[in-house]
Structures are given as C-alpha cells and as structure tokens.
Write a sequence for this structure.
C-alpha cells in the first residue's frame, strides 16, 4: 500500500526526546513521570489483552506467538514489559539516541526486541496483533495520517491501544503549568494546543476504519498516585479495533 505521507515525525520533537535518552531508565531522571505512569498503563493493556484474547488471564505470557508493534517507544519502558508478555516485538522511535539506549538496555535484560529508528509510515510490515502508542499522537505533525498508518499495520483481528493527554484547562494546569515546572516533566515537552480530546481522537480512528471499544481516564490522587478512573480530564487511554461487519 502506497504511503501518501513519508513521515509524521516532528524533527524538533524527536530532538527534544532524543536529548533525554541518557537517563530515560532513571526513575528519578527526566522521564520520572513515565516511570510513574507505566504500571497503570500496563494494567490497562493487560486487561485489554485478556478481554480481546480470552483464556490466558493467568498466564505470564498472554502475547506468546503474537506480533506487537510499539510506536514512539522512547528507550523501551513499555516495550520491555510487552516482550516479557511473550510478544514478538517491533518498536519504533523517531530519535536514534533513544533506540541506541533501548537496544543496550534490552540486551542487558536478555530481551530480543526489534528496535528501529523508523517512522511508522515507512514500516513495510503489517498484520500486527497488537499496536501500542503511548503519549505520542500529541507530538506528531499530522494526527490523521499517523492514525491511518497505525490502522494499516494492525491485523484484521488486532488490538490498538493509545494514551494521550486530553485538551482541558485541567490538563494545561497539571501537565504544563505544574508538571513542567515542579512535576518532573522536562520543559517544552508539551504543546497544549496539540492535545486531542476523546471525541476528536475517536473521529480520527473512525475515519481510519476503526471502532473504539473502550475509553478510560487516567487520573492522579495524592494517596495512590496515578489510577485508572472515569475522569478523563487530564489523560486517557483508548482501545480500538478494525470496524466489524
């Protein structure tokens, strides 16, 4: 299938995240917020996997014999757990620096992950059972083209899981005003105007021939930290599949 867009990567965004590569795996470093988010995201992904492919809820490797694609993988915070779940994993990132760190870290963990500094629009392989892209769509130049590229690479019975900040006054306060000053998010990480609300993202997915099967909020409480909730005002996760029928 011919690609009409060569890449939706924003070079400035790639450079920004590439500059964070060296301490990406430091839970107290520039990616501290992602380390705090990761367990909650993984819980959501595991629940979605168990619903979509039932019968493996007690297995440590529910993705065994399945192909997975992690788009915008950074240095592999989500990729490594997906590989441990048994997935034959391909992971893409815009920054060569992140890919270099990701490869080195995975080797040290004894994990085999196919890391590539390749835009998803230029990836030739298709038919992935699981496609994930966490906190990425708000950084691309053309969200519609990016979603279309993800949909093209998803298997007919595949599962797509996304997470992204919502565009609300609360998300601006939490992620930029506070987050990028004292909350452990590097300055310049987010452009609030590029955030998508759930209705906008759902429309992009529907335009790409997908249907949303779940949308869940990701919120913060002082007592428990990040939790899954019905409140989508700051951030949310979304599951989609190819439209049925």
């Amino acid at each position: 299938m011919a690609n009409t867009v060569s890449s939706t990567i924003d070079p400035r965004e790639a450079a920004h995240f590439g500059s964070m590569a060296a301490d990406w795996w430091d839970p107290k470093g520039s990616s501290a917020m992602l380390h705090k988010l990761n367990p909650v995201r993984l819980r959501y992904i595991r629940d979605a996997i168990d619903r979509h492919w039932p019968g493996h809820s007690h297995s440590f490797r529910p993705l065994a014999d399945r192909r997975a694609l992690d788009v915008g993988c950074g240095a592999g915070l989500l990729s490594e757990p997906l590989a441990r779940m048994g997935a034959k994993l391909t992971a893409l990132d815009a920054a060569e620096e992140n890919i270099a760190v990701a490869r080195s870290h995975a080797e040290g963990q004894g994990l085999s992950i196919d890391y590539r500094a390749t835009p998803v629009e230029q990836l030739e392989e298709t038919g992935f059972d699981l496609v994930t892209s966490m906190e990425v769509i708000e950084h691309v130049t053309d969200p519609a083209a990016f979603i279309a590229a993800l949909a093209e690479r998803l298997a007919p019975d595949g599962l797509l899981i996304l997470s992204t900040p919502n565009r609300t006054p609360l998300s601006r306060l939490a992620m930029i005003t506070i987050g990028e000053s004292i909350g452990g998010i590097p300055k310049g990480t987010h452009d609030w105007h590029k955030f998508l609300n759930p209705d906008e993202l759902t429309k992009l997915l529907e335009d790409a021939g997908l249907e949303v099967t779940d949308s869940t909020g990701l919120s913060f409480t002082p007592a428990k930290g990040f939790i899954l909730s019905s409140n989508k005002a700051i951030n949310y996760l979304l599951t989609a599949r190819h439209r049925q029928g």
